[in-house]
Amino acid sequence: MTLLRDEDLTAAFDHASRSYDALTAANPGYRAHLRRSVRRLGLPGDGAGLRLLDLGCGTGASTAALRAALPAARITAVDASAGMLRRAAAKPWAGAVTFVRAPAERLAEAGVTGPFDAVFAAYLLRNVSDPDAVLVGVRDLLAPGGRLGVHEYALSGRRADRAVWTAVCRGLVQPVASVLGDGRLYRHLWRSVLEFDTADRFAARVRAAGFSHVRALPLPGWQTGIAHTFVARRPEAAR
Hints:
single chain
């Protein structure tokens, strides 16, 4: 199948937004893994004085993970899908959270400007047409020494992990999504992971975008070898 991109993908997420929280809640560890990835950023204290960008916030699960770990931080949460963003913004939020509709490639046009102390992107880079350009743009939004956290389905490269991913998608996710009328989006999910970078290749892509201290960290449970946290930093300014 042809992967969904740009307006077609945004429209599919708009349609799926009504059932998205219910489907992700059925995924063992989904929210706990997001919180783990946020903690792996290694940001200090309760986030007081920090400015964070949640890029591709969806219905707000990643925003909630940031808020749980860093309750005093200021968060700008961005998504291209109006439907997903509407669901996120309707939830009760403690502290400073601002929601902005914008594609990851056109943040400046929507008034999203740095510097940020950290950028967190969950399940995003696999879905953009030009991940290299988005990574460079993110790097430029970070303050020197700022942190990048990417939480993504990026397979280890083992055949067994590809097989598990396909079994989960075809046996569980796609049948339910088809009943809900969102089969096209979740077929995209299955195929996009198979066609995306392995964890090692994505880590190399992050380094090539100008980041330092790049690490790929596995997530536990059934997603071991399937989902990873990638952490990196924008290099400090030259002295």
